[in-house]
Amino acid sequence: MQMTCRSFAPHWDAVASHCAPLYSFFKFIFFFFVDLICYIKVIGTEDLTNDLYKMRFLEGIYRRYGHFVAIHPIPFLLLPVLTTFFSTVGLFRFHIDDDIWNIYSPINGLSRAEEKALERFEYASGVHHYRLQILVNRKDGGNLMNDNNTDKILKMERFIANNITINDGYNSFTYLNICGVYCNDSNEIVLTFIKIAINMNGRSSSSLAFTFPKARIFEKYIFMGYSVGELHYSKQDRTVVDGFKLFILHFMVDLNLPQGKRIAKNFESQLRTLLVLATYESEDLEYALFSRDREIEEQQQITLAALPFLGVTALMLVAFMVISLTDFPFRNSQHIEAIFAVLSPVMALVTSWGILWGAGLPFSNILTVVPFLVITIGVDDAFLILAAWRHSNPASNLETRIGETLTHSGTSVTVTSLTDVLCFMVGLFSNLPVVRLFCIYTSVAIMIDFIYQITFFIAFVAFTGRQKVNHPNEKALYSKQNLKSRNILDGLWSKIEQKDSHKLYSVDVSITKYCLSGDNSLSLKMIRKTSKKSEIILHKFINILHLSFTKFIVVAAFITHIIVVSYLCTKVNTDFDMGNLYMENSSMNAISRQLQRFTLSEAFVVNFALYPMPNFADVFIRNKFDRLIEELETIPKFGMGPDGTVLWTRDFADAVAFWDDESNFWRQDKLLSTFREYEIEEKFITTEKRADGVEVISGFFWSITYRNMNNFLDVQELMQQRRSIISKYAKFFNVSSHHPLEKVPTESAASAATNFIQTAFSAVVLMSAVVYFFITDVSAVVAVVISILSICFGALAYLHLWNVRLDAISLISLLMSIGFSVDYSAHICYHYLTQKVVQYSDNKKSEEHSHQPISIIVGSDANVKDLSILPSINNSNHCNKSSNIDTRARFLVTFKSVGWPVIQSGLSTLVGILPMVMVKAYVVAVFWKTIILLIVLGIIHALILLPNSNSFKLFELRGSGSVSIYCVQIVASHFRFRKMLLPILNEAKKLFLSEPTLLDVEVPCVVIGDIHGQYEDLHRIFSVLGAGRKSGAVKRRFVFLGDYVDRGMNSLETICCLLAHKLMFPKMFNMLRGNHESSDINQTYGFQLELERRFPANNEGLTLWNAFNELFACLPLAAIIHNKILCIHGGIGPELKCLNDIRKIKRPILDPTELPLACSLLWSDPMLDLKGFIKNSIRGAGYFFGEDTVIACCEQLNIDLIVRAHQMIMNGYGFFCKRRLVSVFSAPRYLLSKNNKCAILQVEKDLRVGFILLCPVTPETQGKYLSIT
Fold it and tell me: EC top class, in one word (predicted)?
C-alpha cells in the first residue's frame, strides 16, 4: 500500500527544544512544500477524490502559516513597518502628469499619427510653441462689435504686446521677442479690420467684406476663424457678420528659445495678474485666460480638494468598525484591531506610492480615488479576518485560533484580492494611458494591501489575541474543559510527531462546525454561542428565499433588471464634456465650455498636411487634388464649401492662369521661385534641397473650417468621413489631417465603448478562471459570470440614468466594477461550496447529530478505527428532500460565516466613500456613484439572487450525489416514462454501440465494482470522491465494472443516474457489462419486479424492462487502462489469447452465455489451489481459473494487473495471484445482511493503485467511512 506524502515527515523533537523559532519556521516551510507537492500531485493525477483537497490546499497552507505567525508575530509587524518607512524615499520623486492631451489619448489612435505628421509644419501644429488664449466677453453677454469695446480690446492687446516685460531670470523680453513664427499673425490686424468693418454697418463692398471664417480686404484674406465667435449675421447679407459676442486674443511663446518654458511661465503669470485686474476695473468687459498649464492646475484642484476628506474617511471607517465590532463582555470587542484595520491599507498606500514614484511613474488627478478604494478594500478584508477570529474556537490556544482564522478567511481574501488585482491588470492592456496608469496604481496598492493584511494585520490580531486568550476570565471559562480535551489540530500534530508512528492521521475538518465527540470533548455550543434571535432571523430569511412565491418574485425582478439594463445600455451617451475635467465651481468650466461650443458649432479648423510633394506639373495630379479638396470642403452637414478653405495652391493657380503655359510654373524646380515671387506666405510650406542643390517645396499644409457640430459624436462622424475621403486618394497623395479635439476627447470617447467591451470580456474570462482554480466548481463560475455581467452592465445602465457618460473617466469606474462585482458573489460561492453537508433541522437531536467529527485514517493495514463523515441518506423520504435540505443548511452556515461580514463590508465601503460626495467634481462623482451601485447590486446578487437561484443545484446535477437524487427522482417519477426514460435509453444505446467492445481508458481514473441497486451508497461514493461538481466529473475518469441492477432497492435510480452521467460525460464515464445486465438474471433477482411495481399501468414496467435489456446488450465488455490494467466484470477464460479477441466481439449480445469469451468475461471466478481452467459449476456459466492462468494471461496480453468485480468481499477488495489480480466490490452491507465494506480502486497517473473503503451503513456506523490509500 502506498503512503501519503506526509508520512515521510521527519522527526523534529530534538531540534525543537534548542531552537524553537527556527524549528517553527522550517516546519512551516517544510509542510508548505509538502502541501505543494501533494497539490501538484493531485493536479497531475486529476484525482476526483482529492478534489476537496485541491479546494483546501490554500486553507492548509494558511492554517500552518497562522500557527507560525501566532508564535512569532513581531517580525510580521516590523517588516511591513520598515518596508513602508524605506519606501518613503520614493515619495521624493513625486511628479504630476495631468496633460489630458496625452494621458486621455488612445495609444494606438490614428490621431496621434496624424498629429505627428503635422509636426513638420510648425505653424499648423504649434508643437514648439506655448499657446495662451484670452477670451473677451461683455459682462452683460452683449455684442462686442462696437468701437468702444474694440478699442478697449485693441488697447489691451497692444499693452500686452509692447509693455509687458517678460523675464527668464537672466534677460528681459517683450512679446515680439518671443512669439516665434507667429509674430506676423498679429491680433492687431484682426482688430483693425473689425474697426473698419464696424463702419460698414453689416454691408460688404468690392474692397471689404466681413465674412467668416475668411474676411476679405481688397485682394487679401484675413482668417477670422480663430478670433471671433458667437456670431450674428446681417439681415441684408446672410454671409456678412455684423456682430459677435466672443473675441479671442492669441499669444504664442517660442519654446525653442533658451529658457523657453521659464519665459512662458513668467509671461502667463503676468497675464493672469493683468487680466484679473483688467476685469475688475472694466465696466463692461471681462477677460479669461485659457492655457494648458491652467487646465492642469484646475485638474489638480480635484486632488487638493479630495485629500482632506481622506482623513475623514479613515476616521469614519474607524468609528464604524469600532461600533460594529463592539461585543459583550467588553473585552471581546475588537476596537484596537479596528484602528489597525485602517492603518494597514494606509501603510500599503504609502508603500505602493513610494515604489511607483520611485520607479518614475507620474501622479494624475484621476488617481485621487485610489486611496479611498484601497482603504475600503482593506477594511473589507479586515472584517472577514476579524469575523473568522470571532468564529474560531475560544477554548483553543492562540496558535490554533490564528490558524483557524486564516483557514476560514485567508482563501476568501486571497480569491477576492487576486480577482481585484487581475481585473485591474486587465486594464493594462487598454489603449488609454490614463486607464493604464490608474490600473497600475490600483493593482499594486491592492496587492501590497493584501500582503500587509496577511502579515501585519494578522500579526497584530495575534498580538492582541494573546492578551485576550490569557485573560483570567477566559482561562477560567475553559480551563476545566482544556484539562480533559485537546484541540483537534493539536492532537493531529502530536500523532504526526510520535517517534514510532507508522501511520498518518490527517484531519479534514471545519473547526467552526465540528469538534471531537465524546466525554472528553468540548461542546460546540460552549465553543461559540450564536444569538437565538439572529439564528431565528437567518432561518426565516432562508426559508423565505426558498418559497416558490419568493423565487418567482426574484426571478421576475432579475428578468426585469436584465431587460431594463439591456435597453438602457443602448441609450448610453458616449459624448464628452470638457467641463467634466474640473471642479464644478471652477472658472475653467465656463471657459472650456464656451471654447468647446464656439469650436464645434462655428470654427472647427482642421489642418491638412501633404508630404511628400506630388508632381503638380502633371495636370491629372492637379485635377485629382482639386477633386480631393472639393470633397473635403463639402462634407454633408459640416462643410462650408470653398469659403472655409485656406489653400495657397488656389491663389497660386489664379496667379499663373494669366500665362499660357501654366504647367511650366508647377514644375518642381520652378514652383518655389514662383511661389516667392508672388509673395505667398511661406508658413504654409516646407522646403528641402535636392541632390543637385536646388531648393524645392517638399510639402505643404492647408486648413478647412467646419461647423454645425453639437457634440463630439458629430466630431467623430466628421472625422470618419474625412478619413474615408482621404483614403480614397491615398494612392495619389499622402495626406494627414488633424484637429486637437479629435485626439482628446473625440477618439478617446470613441474608444471607450470598445475598451469596455474588450475589458469586460477579458475580465470575465480571467475571473472565471481564477474562481474555478480556487473553488473548482462550475456552478460557482457560472454564478460569478452572471454576477459580473449583470452588475457591470447594470452599473453602466444605471449610471446613464445618473447622468454619467461612457468616457475615459467612467471607463475606469466600470473597470473597477468588474473587479468589485465578483467579490461578494465569490465570498458566498466559496463558503457555500466548501461547506460540509449538514442536516438542516430545527430539532435538537438533528442539530447535535450534524456535529459529528470528520477524519480520515490512512495506513497500510485494515485494522483501523471507523471515523465518521456526514450522515448518509438512509430513507426514501430523506432521499427525496436531500437536495433542498442540503442547500438550506449550507446557506445557513454560509450566512453565519460571511453574511454579516459581507454586509459590514458593503456598509464600510459606503462609509468610506461618503466623504467623496463632498468633492464637487465629475471625476470623483463617477466613482462614488459607481461604488454605491456596485454595493447595492453586489449585495442583492450575493444574498438574494444566488441563494434564491437553482444555479448550484442545476450544475451539481451533473455529478453530485445529493442532486443526482433530485435528478433521477424527476426522471424516474415525475415524468411519464415514454416521454423521458425511453428517449434516454435510446440515446444511451446509440452511444454504447459507438464505443468499442474493449474500451481504452487513460489515467488517472477510479474503478467501481458491483453497485446492485444500492443508490444511496452510489451517492456516498460520489460524495467521498468529490464528484459533486461538473468539474470533478470532467477531470476524473470512471470505470464501472457492471452489476448495476438487482438485489438492491433502487435499481432504477442507480442505472438512470449512471446513464445520465454517461450521456453528459461520455468520455469520462465508462460502463462495462456485468452478468446481471442480462434478461434471464435480472428477471429473477429483482429488476423486472421493481419496474413492474413502479410502472404498473398499461404494462409499462414490462416494456421498460425490455428496453433496458436491449440497452444492456450494447454495453462494452472490458476496458484496458493505459494498456496495462485490464478491467472486466467476471474473469478470464481459455478463449482469451490477445486483446483483439475482445475487440472482435460484436454487439448487441442478448445472451452472453452463447459466446464463450463473453461468457467468461462476465461469469468466471478465481480459485485458490487450482491450475488451469475448470467449469464454474457453482454459477453454471464461465470458468474457475487458477493463479497460473492469471500469470500466463498477463504475460500473453502484456499487462500488469487484472481488475474484476463479481464477488462480495468483506473488506471491499481482495488480491489474488501475488497481486496480479484484484477483486473490487462496491455494494456495502450487501443484501442488508452482510457487514462488508465498499471499495473504490484508484489508479494514479504513474499507475500506482490505491483504495478508498466505505463502512457499511448500519445504525452503529451511520455516516462513517475510512480511506486506505
Answer: hydrolase
Tell me the pLDDT band of 833, cut-offs 50, 70 and 90. Answer: low
- Give 375-416 as a DSSP string: HHHHHHHHHHHHHHHHHS-TTS-HHHHHHHHHHHHHHHHHHH
Give the three cell numbers for residue 357: 514614484
| 912 φ, ψ (degrees, to nearest 5) | -65, -35
Could you tell me if residue 561 is inside a domain?
A: yes
**CATH, residue 782:** 1.20.1640.10
876-885, 915-924, 1038-1047, 1101-1110: least confidently modelled range: 876-885
Do 513 and 851 contact (CB within 8 A), yes or no?
yes
Ranges 54-68, 384-398, 552-566: which has the least confidence:
54-68
End-to-end CA distance of the chain: 6
Write the CB contacts of 331 (distance below 8 Å, at least 6 apart in sequence).
Answer: 468, 471, 473, 474
Q: How many Å apart are CA 1188 and CA 1172, to the nearest integer?
A: 7
Distance CA 77, CA 68 (A): 13
pLDDT at residue 1, rounded to an integer: 37
Region 643-671: mean pLDDT is: 87
User: Has residue 923 been placed in a domain?
Assistant: yes
**Do residues 1139 and 1120 make contact, with C-beta atoms less than 8 angstroms apart?**
yes
More confident residue, 1100 or 228: 228
**pTM for the structure as a whole:** 0.66
679: left (phi over 0), alpha (psi -120 to 50) or beta: left
pLDDT score for 310: 85
- 437/563 same-domain check: no
67 within domain boundaries? yes
User: Which of 929, 960, 991 is the last residue before a domain boundary?
Assistant: 960
The domain in which residue 899 lies consists of 545-574+743-835+887-960
Average pLDDT, the chain: 81
Q: Are 945 and 1021 in the same domain? A: no
Instruction: State how many domains the chain has.
Output: 4
Greatest Cα pair distance in the chain? 131
Q: Is 238 found in the same domain as 339?
A: no
CB-count exposure of residue 528 (10 Å: 0-12, 13-18, 19+): middle
Domain for residue 160, yes or no? yes
Instruction: Cite the DSSP H helix spans in 1144-1243.
Output: 1156-1163, 1187-1197
Rounded to the nearest 10 degrees, the angle between the axes of helix 876-894 and helix 961-969 is 130
Positions marked active-site: 1076
Mind giving me the DSSP string for 1134-1166? Answer: TT-SSHHHHHT--S--S-GGGSHHHHHHHH-EE
| Spatial contact of 1164 and 1132, defined as CB atoms under 8 Å apart | yes
CA–CA separation, 834 and 590 (whole Å): 57
Q: Which residue in 291, 323, 289, 74 sits closest to 904, CA to CA?
A: 323
437 pLDDT band, cuts 50/70/90, is very high
Residues 789, 903 within the same domain: yes
CA 697 to chain centre: 55
| Distance of alpha carbon 915 from alpha carbon 308, whole angstroms | 9
State whether 905 and 819 are in the same domain. Answer: yes
Residue type, position 1192, single letter: A
Give yes or no for a contact between 601 and 594, defined as CB atoms under 8 angstroms apart: no
Assess whether 913 and 1009 both reside in one domain: no
Q: What pLDDT digit, counting tens, does each position of 1116-1166 carry? A: 999 999 999 999 999 999 999 999 999 999 999 999 999 999 999 999 999
Rg from Cα positions in the chain: 41
Residues 1125 and 1082 reside in one and the same domain? yes
Of 928, 960, 992, which marks where a domain is finished? 960
**Same domain? 1033 vs 1153:** yes
Q: Torsion-angle region of residue 326: left (phi > 0), alpha (psi -120 to 50) or beta?
A: beta
State the Cα torsion 784-786-787-792 to the nearest 10°.
Answer: 120
